[in-house]
Amino acid sequence: MSYQATCRVADPASDAATTALAAQRATIAAIEQDLWAGGTLNESLLEPYQAAFRRLEQLLAEQRRPEKDTRHKFVIVIPVADRPQHLQACLGSLLEQCQAFGYGGNSGVGNGGYQKIAVLIADDSRNASSIAWHRELARYFNRHGLNAIHFGPAEQLDLLQSLTADNHPAPELVRILGTCQPGADGNFGHKGQAVMRNIAYLKLNEMAAEAPDQQLLFYSVDSDQEFKVKVATAEGDQEVCAVNFFHYLDEIFTRTDAEVLTGKVVGDPPVSPAVMAGNFLEDVIAFLRQMSASSADCDCRHHLADTHAEGEAAYHDMADLFGFRAAVAAYRYRCTLAGPHSEADCFAHFASRLGSFFYGEHPTRVSHYVYADTLGSVQAARTVYAGNYVFRPGGLKYFIPFAALRLRMSGPTLGRIVKSEIGARFVSANLPMLHKRTVHSTGQAEFRPGVVAAAGAIDLHDEFERQFHGDVMLFSIERLAAEGFPRLVPAPAAIAATLEAVRADMQIKYNTQHADILEKLGRLNGLLNDPAHWWARPGVHAEAVDNFKTFVANVTHNFGAHSPCYARINAAENWEKWRPGLLEAIVSYPADSAAWQQQLAG
Questions:
Q1: pLDDT score at 69
Q2: Is the pTM of this model over 0.85?
């Protein structure tokens, strides 16, 4: 790793300081190489690695006063809806990141304050107790050194209703910000992540205007993510604070003209169960086959690391849509139980985790951090991970598109638009965040829109439908962007034809996958209900078997022969409800963008 000297002043004291900084950066680079030597984490070097960065911060502080530190200040925006436990873990990991690496220094006033880090908690909750909990978390982490601002529904309404004299924004802004009015019950929550992000970006715009001389970077994350990475070790997976996110982001935005940068996630997949059921069923079938070849009381044999290399979108049933090779074989489940235990114990534990799939977990295809030189990993991008992307204040012009439609895949859709407009100034880097869909104590998400659970039954049709039409929008925009959109806007008839063609393609993809799922459900039922297998002994493994049967019932309801999900995406009358909104959104995008930029400027 090469570094440029930060300054050159012709006096001995400055020369000594510059030499010390260069030496410390060289030390960091050397430790980093050893930390990940052989592709695995050397845990004994993690604390020295973090300490080396803290020493770098000390040297920088000795060389120049804090007000002369021209490195970027980060404003981290976290949309959150009724997820206090997730938010607490997210903010806790941010504080740990600051304490471990010390980016920007600590003021030492009171409990200390991290100079270059601020947090905007954009609260989209409906539950008053969640809002109060989120507000208290902001206070708590403020006392511990994080400058955290709670941007609640009341503050959001005040900001939105100041946009126009009559409290009603222009139609162009409604497609970006929603109605800007509370519901009939007076509640202003659950507007959706896209609308909430766009409202938060108005607040970020105010913050940028109040600090015109600061080098600001805005960092969008999700509340169910942490500033850590998941690494695979011989003893099992570990979640570690091993990446100095802020240091490397500052380096990238200092050394390049990047306008928008996206990272990715490790841990749980960033996609909906709607597009993971086929792969997961294949893995569950493989698990039962392996179990059938053993006995219930023998030692657990599910702790070996999978031989599969971690590939892009290994969890996605239709990975080929994104240019990746689809997985051709099942992935082996890696047991997470500690201490001596049997195959029956593993069977029961895996069964207890099956329900988490419907909230976004994929227990057999967890992704792990793979080290690569961060600066060397920078490359052109096409997809925004909305829960992990960073942009300069000028990047506020790129609102989350088509927000009022509440489609899934809004990040990748935004990415196609950004790529079309700024090309190589839209980049990605090897800076993934840890993604944890569920709360450990329940195995469920605190709140997940589009997932309706009652008495063990789970219905995904809303999320499924938003996923399908999100894919239609994404790949329509991709085709239009190849022709110059949004700089060049085809006639409405041409846009309508593109939507129809893409929808037809998506129906074929989804229906082909549906047939695959039906075949796998048949195989899974045959294995699970075979009386020859040891788990079929009456009463002995009843709870675990019941968990499997509940899982199968929920898969059958959502993805089986009489699935309401597939019925809705294939129904012509349902398409007639969706098509006008999708068409209007695309046709109106240039006008919406112009209105948005005018609002930012005003």
A1: 81
A2: yes
